[in-house]
Design a protein that fits this description.
Blueprint (H helix, E strand, L loop, with lengths): L6 H15 L8 H17 L2 H19 L9 H9 L16 H5 L7 H7 L23 E7 L1 H6 L1 E6 L5 E6 L8 E4 L13 E7 L6 E3 L2 E9 H6 L1 E7 L2 E7 L8 E4 L16 E8 L6 H16 L2
Parallel strand pairs: 1-5, 7-11
Antiparallel strand pairs: 2-3, 4-5, 6-7, 8-9, 10-11
Amino acid sequence: MDRNASESDIKKAYRRLARQFHPDVNQGDKTAEARFKEINEANEVLSDADKRKKYDELGQQYQRWQQTGGQTGGFDWSQWAQAQSGQPGAGPGGVRVEYADLNDLFGGGGDFSDFFESVFGGRGGYGAYETQRGTRAPARGQDIEGEVEITLDEAFHGTERMLNIDDGRRLEVKIPPGVKTGSKVRVQGEGAGADGKRGDLYLRVKELPNAVFERRGDDLYRDVPVDLFTALMGGEARVDTMTGPVVLSIPPGTQPGRTIRLKGQGMPKLRTPDQRGDLYARVRVNLPNKLSDRERELVREWQQLREGSR
């Protein structure tokens, strides 16, 4: 892809790289997470017509400088600004131009994004100008990451947490339904940073064990006690779900440990909470602990009938 890449080409490249480095696909990979942020920052520039124009103008001027034998870091940006506006030290729109890193123009605050390399075919050695009328653009602050523990009920319904930030701020954070252990809740602009733009706050979710339900993704599993006669003859059993009790139909001859699916009675899906996983009821047959003499006689008689029918 060359420097004249169309808006459609840029969108395709962005989507491809965003999918590749998305945190959900690379959980726990800090390098992929940083790359994903760079990709989004780059896309903000390339999808903005004004910023894209500034980038292209800057590149053309710098190429002319290189063609005359100029070395990286020695380009006089104020001369370029004068040529653009006719006023000393003033760039397009009267904004003063000073030597800086390319990322200062775009708010990246780090190394030149690999997204630019993939779209434009190389770094090109460009410098950049700043947009704060002679002052350096404030760098983006660091992201903050912490852990928050929630119950299964909170993961099902969603919840809130009041956080005390190190700089004395109190922050109420909403945790959406469907989160699970490993999910990250992003709070934009609430990370570290003083005079400049703050980074983001990420809350890493840890779901506490539940005494009744076992969670596997968006599905839930639980034991359902059934008496011997219901398991043998069939019948109904009450099952408590996350939203209340339901009646489960038990087929005749149900074996201990059999799993019966209750569709849509699991956990809400994170991005589509109106959709839910399933609940799997594991049948646990309760046998009587003590038998009367008459019950023992009936069991022996039953045993003889079963053996005689073989």
